[in-house]
Each structure stands twice: as C-alpha cells, then as structure tokens.
Amino acid sequence: MNAQHTIVMVQFTSDINTRTYIDYDSIQLALDGICQTYEQALKHSNPQSSSATYTARDLFAYLDALCSICALVRKAEKPVYMPRDKQWIKNKLIEHLKSQTK
Question: Tens digits of per-residue pLDDT, 61-99?
C-alpha cells in the first residue's frame, strides 16, 4: 500500500461528543489503528482477559455498530483528499488482514 496520509473520522455513538478523528501517515497505519481501536474496546468490555482474539466478522460487526466511520485519503500525486466510506475501509481491512497472515 502507498504511504498516503489518511484521516479516520469516527463517531462512536449517536452523541456528537463521541466524534473524533485520528490522522495517520499511511493507509496501512490507519488500518492498524482501526484494529487497535477495536482491540481496546474488547479489552474494555473484558478487562479480565489478557488477550483479544477476534475474526474479521467480529471486527466488521464492531464497525457496523459505530454511528459513523469514514476516511479521507490523500492522493499521492495531488494535494487532494479523497473521501472513503465504511465499505471501502472494510475492503482495505480484508486486504490488510490477509497480508498479515502471509
């Protein structure tokens, strides 16, 4: 994946005060960050567990439960950010997770 600056915007619940954004130096780092956010949510819901094990289906269910998640990805050749929706994020996560199992 190209090293393209990526901004992930999330609203965790219907409360607008849960809106936040995180910027990353690349798409790959953004995908890692999304997985880490889910892992933190798992740890928070199961504090007695020392490790978090999950499937892509579990991760996608978490993303679907969010009020909103999207990304802005900077095009490498132009100083323009392209909006990316939840489905794009899921597709990239599938590629990302597959690349980690190789």
Answer: 999 999 999 999 998 888 899 999 999 999 999 999 999
Read off the pTM: 0.89
Tokens of 89: 């994020």
Cα-Cα-Cα-Cα torsion 81, 75, 63, 91, nearest 10 degrees, comes to: 150
Give dist(CA 39, CA 25) in Å, integer.
21
Q: CA-CA distance, 54 to 81, in Å (whole number)?
A: 31
CA 31 to chain centre: 5
Nearest to 59 by CA among 36, 38, 84: 38
Under CATH, which architecture does the 6-101 domain have? 2-Layer Sandwich (3.30)
- CA distance from start to end of the chain: 15
- 3-class SS at 54? coil
